[in-house]
Amino acid sequence: MQDDPTLNVNLTRALDESKRLADSITPVSDRWDVIVVGSGAAGGMAAFQLAMAGVKVLLLEAGRMLDVKTEYRTMEWPYASNRRGRMPVGERPIDVAEYSFLDRPYGSNPALEKYKKVMSYSANRFTRNWVVDEREHPHTGTPYAWVRSRVLGGKTNFWGRGALRYGPLQFNAASRDGFDVDWPISYDEVKPYYDKVDVLLGCSGTTEGLMQVPDGVFQKPSKLNCVEVAFKRAIAPMGRHYIPGRAGVTTEGVLNNKYRARCAGRGRCGRGCDIGAAFHSPQALIYPARDSGTLTIRPYSIVSEVLVGESSNRATGVRVIDANTSEVMDFKAPVVVLGAGTLDTTRILLNSRSRAHPSGLGNSSGVLGCYLSEHIMGIRGSGYIPARIGTETTLDDGRAVSPYVPRFRNVTDRHPDFIRGYHFQGGGGCAEYPSMADDLQGYGKAFKSNVRKHYPALISLGGFGEVLSRKENRVTLDPSVKDKWGIPVLRFDYRFGDNELKMAKDMADTVEEMLIAAKAEDIKIERDPLPPGWSIHEIGTARMGDDPRTSVTDKFCRLHDAPNVYIADAAPFVCGGTQNTTWSILAMAWRTMDYLKERLKAGDA
Amino acid sequence: MPKAATSSGVDTGRRTALKAIGTIVALPWLSDEGLLAFARLQETNAASPLKVLSKPQFEALEVLTEAIIPADERSPGAKQARVADYIDLLLAEVDREVVLQWIGGLALLDAEAMSRFRSPFSRLRDTQVDAIMQTISRNEKSAQTPLEAFFVMAKQATVRGYYTSKIGIHDELGYKGNQFLREFVGCRTEDGQDCPHCGQKHHAG
């Protein structure tokens, strides 16, 4: 293999720090009030809230520490790599063929499976050291693109920055259309936490007054560029909005955080923002929490199960398998907070089997693992906006996110074919790579000038649709397959249903009609959804509710079956609308931790 | 060139056999001694810092990539952007089958050039190169012949190599992003002004 300095990053510092921490922190090296599992949005927020309140926290991360200065390569050009940014042949962290496409430079021969690659920002040269290898982390059952990251900060290191909040259309969805149940809490109960998250972490956007995407406390927005304004004006008469994307990126700075600066308009957030303008859990939450002096971080700590006392329904701690040495250690604490990432949190609970909880901790209802949901996506449309064809290059991508078309189905009207709805994300204008060059025909000077001509004019939008939370969409523990550390893996039983497929058809039709309204040329519509899981917006599987017979946690994300075990990630979410999940995880984790802090104060945790 | 312009220069039987390479590696060249020997000769003659391709193969590839994205009044083309080097690097990592696809494709290109102009592809005059390019680019959306399939493959790699190069990004496209900005401006109509970039007025319509 060729040596590629952009690929083989020097991780010495992060590895040394990880080893030092893992060696020095043992079950008897200290005592902690709370164990937090996971260091992404959920675990990061949980650890931050507790540590800032003076609670002694042990944060367990399954992967290693992160060296932000070396690993976030925000401004690297493709020509810095001799493979021009491609991954080496055969390197596919997500090892399932369904999720990958032929990598053009290696040839157009579909028989050559190994030249396929994962076409997603979750698997590229910037993230390859963060995303798990499925050979070590298999899963079974129906196809599911389960993107996992085991490193400090988890997926927040490369997330898409979409910072949309849920609103009444989600919390009270069942009241509106009769499907499933409402959340046990209302938007009004969570709104103050969304507002606090906006202020603490920085959220850019515009105040629109749309009930389908409630406004927040916004900093300066990621504005629309010229081609997008043309599109916005074309769809306005249809009653559809095209508004600046809402991004978990600070454009005006945040208070009291020396690890973060405001956005500098480079538009490379998904590789990790080296000035910390984009929200990444390490700089935004974990480093400040560590500075408080009450947070201990132990990397390489794979939690296999929550330990429960013989004669009580209270957790006593967690079992940890050291990722490097495979040493098994039981860490004890009065409270356990799970933020391992929706599906891994549920996997830990399912694997926490004891005499009192034979089918897993929190599973007396039998619904642990059920109601898995995410977003159906992959349906997209593109075209060239005539007014921008042949114009000069403009700076169009110096911002945190592209704009989006908020949901317009089943907001005030009722669609005859499906319930719930979808939104579109996407934009246009001049990007670093002119993707139209892959599509335009011909060769020579005519081809070259044709690429240049169309370069500023391309607009492209992709849909995200709500997948109904259905009981039969579930995960269980595979009875025989285990991961590299001997922990049973998840078996998926998850499919898109009739409602999703009808919604997907409508998505393709409406994106086409909007492009036609914008008089776009050479309109291309992708009508097939991507395989399940692709959205990386998984929610559910440990749903919250007031009735212990039909839910896993109470309305404070505390297990009905074990009152000192809390969930900080999206596993308790009842339904997820069209919105990206991270901002809701942050708000809900904050709310859950406020509740836990009260209990701790009252001596009743 | 009435008939020749539409023919790939190989007889119909072999063409049918060679069709296979568009979809699956069937190694039809191995059964054709002439072509294989031609390819082998090119390989064994290799004496360059190139990783996979021989010097003649590399020269043919340079001409081909430059024909796909040539220099023009605005910017240099694929040759100066060293796209052929990039492709040679990629080929160093792939299986023999893929390398054979490329070497075979280049050999076919030479065979076409020899048959039509009695000269290898890398020695053709611009108008002759263009005549061949016209022939092989005819069915880009659904390549019918091995040469047409090779064109599609070579174009994809050339496009990727060129527009990820310094020349492609900066000289040709004039890409302006990936810089430190005080603030992202976008369309000025969003700030309540007429936009000098796109000419759209603050008040639509």
What distinguishing features does this structure have?
heterodimer; A: 605 residues; alpha/beta; FAD/NAD(P)-binding domain; Cholesterol Oxidase, domain 2; 2 domains; 5-stranded parallel beta sheet; 5-stranded antiparallel beta sheet; 12 helices; B: 205 residues; mainly alpha; 49% helix; disordered N terminus
Q: What does the secondary structure layout of this molecule look like, with pairings?
A:
The complex is a heterodimer of chains A (605) and B (205).
Chain A: H1 12-24, E1 34-37, H2 41-52, E2 57-60, H3 68-71, E3 100-102, E4 116-118, E5 140-141, H4 168-171, H5 173-177, H6 187-201, H7 226-235, H8 281-291, E6 295-298, E7 301-308, E8 315-322, E9 328-332, E10 335-338, H9 342-350, E11 375-384, E12 404-405, E13 422-428, H10 444-454, E14 458-466, E15 474-482, E16 488-493, H11 498-517, E17 521-526, E18 565-567, H12 582-601
Parallel strand pairs in A: 1-2, 1-10, 2-6, 5-16, 10-18
Antiparallel strand pairs in A: 3-4, 7-8, 8-9, 11-14, 11-17, 12-13, 13-14, 15-16
Chain B: H1 12-19, H2 33-44, H3 55-68, H4 83-91, H5 96-117, H6 126-136, H7 146-163, H8 166-172
Describe the 3D structure.
The complex is a heterodimer of chains A (605) and B (205). Chain A is α/β, with parallel strands linked by helices. In chain A, a hairpin with a 5-residue loop joins strand 15 and strand 16. Chain B has 205 residues and is an all-alpha fold. Chain B has 2 domains: 171 residues, no CATH class; 27 residues, no CATH class. Helices cover 49% and strands 0% of the residues of chain B. In chain B, helix 3 packs across helix 4. The longest helix of chain B is centred in the middle third of the chain and has 22 residues. The termini of chain B are far apart. The N terminus of chain B is likely disordered. The chains are: A alpha/beta (605), B mainly alpha (205). Chains A and B meet through helix 7 and helix 10 of A and helix 4, helix 5, helix 7 and helix 8 of B.
